[in-house]
Amino acid sequence: MSVRVDKWLWSVRIYKTRTLATQACKSGHISIDGNSIKASREIKVGTIIDLRKDHLNIQLKVKQLAEKRMGAKLVPDFMEDLTPKEEYERLQTIHSGGFEQRGRGTGRPTKRDRRDISDFKNI
C-alpha cells in the first residue's frame, strides 16, 4: 500500500492544508533521496522525507501510512523525526536574535523607549 506524499504530510499535521503541502512540493521544498518530488509521488513505510519549512531542514521517516488527518497525539505513531538537534538549536538562535517585539500599530520606538530598552538590556 502507498499514499501520496502531499496527503501524508497533511495527515500527520506537517502542513495545515493539503494545498500548502502540494505547493511545498511544487516549489521544491520536499525531497526524497536528494531529489525534489511532485505532490503525486507515492510513499511507503520506511521512506525518509527531507523538507524545508520555516528556515528548518526537517527529516522524517514514515512509520505508518495515513490518508485522513489525525489528532496531534497520534502523530508519533505515524512518523519519526530524524532531524538533528543542531537544526532546532539553529532555529532557536534565529528566533532569539536581536529583534524586538512590539505591538502592532505602535510604530517605531521613541528616543525615550530606546533608552528604556537599553537600560533594561544593560547595554
Tell me about this structure.
The chain has 4 helices and 7 strands, in the order βααββββββαα. With 123 residues, the chain is α+β, with helices and mostly antiparallel strands. It has a domain at 3-87: Structural Genomics Hypothetical 15.5 Kd Protein In mrcA-pckA Intergenic Region, Chain A (Roll). The strands form 2 sheets. It has a 5-stranded antiparallel beta sheet with strand order 3-2-5-6-7.
Distance between the termini: 60 Å
Number of helices: 4
Proportion of residues in β-strands: 15-25%
What is the number of beta strands?
Answer: 7
Task: Indicate the structural class.
Answer: alpha+beta
CATH T-level topology of the domain at 3-87: Structural Genomics Hypothetical 15.5 Kd Protein In mrcA-pckA Intergenic Region, Chain A
**CATH class designation of the domain at 3-87:** Alpha Beta
Q: How does the overall form come out from the CA principal axes?
A: elongated
CATH architecture of the domain at 3-87: Roll
Characteristic key phrases:
123 residues; alpha+beta; Structural Genomics Hypothetical 15.5 Kd Protein In mrcA-pckA Intergenic Region, Chain A; 5-stranded antiparallel β-sheet; two-stranded antiparallel ribbon; 4 helices; 7 strands; 20% strand
